[in-house]
Amino acid sequence: xxxxxxxxxIMTRRSLFGKAAMGLGGLALGxxxxxxxxxxxxxxxxxxxxxxAPKAKRVIYLFQxxxxxHVDLFDHKPxxxxxxxxxxxxxxxxxxxxxTMSKADTPRPVLSEISNFKQHGKSGAWVxxxxxxxxxxxxxxxxxxxxxTESVNHAPAITxxxxxxxxxxxxxxxxxxxxxxxxxxxNIPSFVVMTSRxxxxxxxxxxxxxxxxxxxxxxxxQGVKFRGNGDPVLYxxxxxxxxRDVRRGMLDDLARLNEKKLQEVGDPEISTRISQxxxxxxxxxxxxxxxxxxxxxxxxxDMYGPDVKRQGSYAYNCLMARRLIEKGSRFVQLMHAxxxxxNNLNHxxxxxxxxxxxxxxxxxxDLKQRGLLEDTLVIxxxxxxxxxxxxxxxxxxxxxxxxxxxxxxxxxMAGGGVKPGISYGQSDEFGFNAVKDKVHVxxxxxxxxxxxxxxxxxxxxxxxxxxxxxxxxxxxxxxDILA
Length: 483
What we know:
Elements: H1 3-10, H2 13-32, E1 58-65, H3 70-73, H4 78-82, H5 90-93, E2 117-120, E3 125-128, H6 132-136, E4 141-148, H7 154-163, H8 173-181, E5 191-197, E6 224-226, H9 244-265, H10 268-290, H11 298-304, H12 314-327, E7 331-337, H13 345-369, E8 376-381, E9 385-386, E10 404-405, E11 409-414, E12 422-424, E13 426-427, E14 434-436, E15 439-440, H14 441-451, E16 461-463, E17 466-468
Parallel strand pairs: 1-7, 1-8, 4-12, 4-15, 5-6, 5-7
Antiparallel strand pairs: 2-3, 4-11, 8-11, 9-10, 13-14, 16-17
Helix pairs in contact: 2-9, 9-10, 12-13
């Protein structure tokens, strides 16, 4: 079967003229919308969304690649200190699956927390002294301490969290939302991705494009990646000697050629090509303004930290995230690598926290003082946690580390309809298994969709003969954390 030929065979005269009118008419209508605050419509084939009044209109996902150690940062477990150096009980760990770096016959001595914990704010949230700025906003945060997932390796676990499946090929969360909810701006991409890594390049985490891919959705819904150096987006600048009005004429002619081809073959990717050429043209003016921090007060820049003006740094990306959602981006996905501490936990964890703590907290504070936190959902966390037991030898303190741990881990959320100042869920006394109010990855995804006014069971896309959704065939909304 050839879809394009099949499309031609079923194309009627009426549908041909209808598609042609919608194509050029849509471009003409789009050029009339000059007000950035006016939300652009979603895909006409998408379900009518939202299903109900949303609490959040947009999402900033501060994804920490490599998996931060929950037992050293947010999940305080005094039992680890009591059992330090002793083999973790079989009643806790026997039969559990780990990465190949922790074989079944490998000793598993319990490793005490390498940081000090204190309670903070009126909520009394336990936060490590490695995260002093996050501790300051504890009463604005909802800590979910009973998350659990399926995979024990990074790429499948990240893919699972962001797309609902462990194998690449499904749409990412940002793509689903762009497809269903449309854009709030015609000049800024609805879904933007930025990446950063620790200065020491201490781990080899790779950012795969499918972490922000559109899967089987049209590719215009995939994330637009802003680069960490040079022009944030390639090929939006005019070549030397090419006036803007000439570029405009070229795009108009190209659009007419693409529209003709679209009518002939019905390939939705041609429609994507048209829309992306237009977006690139509009971004010629919007992106330089977006990346110009000269209008930011000095106290705001100071709050994000000394790296805020270094393009490609985590701090820079956090401030960019705030500016992007102000301009109308629907989903901003920051991905920061460096948390994969298998044998450098004793020194690298604190460095990683120093690089990210201030900027993460500053983003929440900044959104709050601007009145944006109420309808912006901020999420912080990785793909899983780290083992409460040591990977390595207890006497080799310089090479202490923790392995991958899917059985319980912690994320925090802020704004966007989430209850502030609470800790939800609980792990056992070793921080090994989620034991109370467990939250599976699909539950977490369903809750995010719910906050955006979407019923995750009804928001589907038909592909290869079945209806797909972000949460696959699972997931329940965690209602106890909703404000």
